[in-house]
Write a structure and sequence with these properties.
Helix content is 80%, strand content 0%. It is mainly α.
Length: 55
């Protein structure tokens, strides 16, 4: 369950960094793409592993 919640949190934080206009997070725009890619890849890998284990 944690393996599904954590990538969703990565995605949410990545989109938050991308959309925010706060001066403190303005320099973190580079990390937004990293969190989004990390969340998507982790979520896809978890679903692939769940599919392969169900066979």
């Amino acid at each position: 369950m944690l393996q599904i919640i954590l990538p969703i949190l990565f995605l949410a934080f990545g989109f938050y960094l991308k959309k925010t206009t706060s001066p403190g997070f303005r320099t973190s725009k580079k990390f937004a793409n990293m969190f989004i890619i990390l969340g998507i890849s982790t979520l896809v890998a978890k679903f692939i592993l769940m599919y392969l284990n169900s066979k």
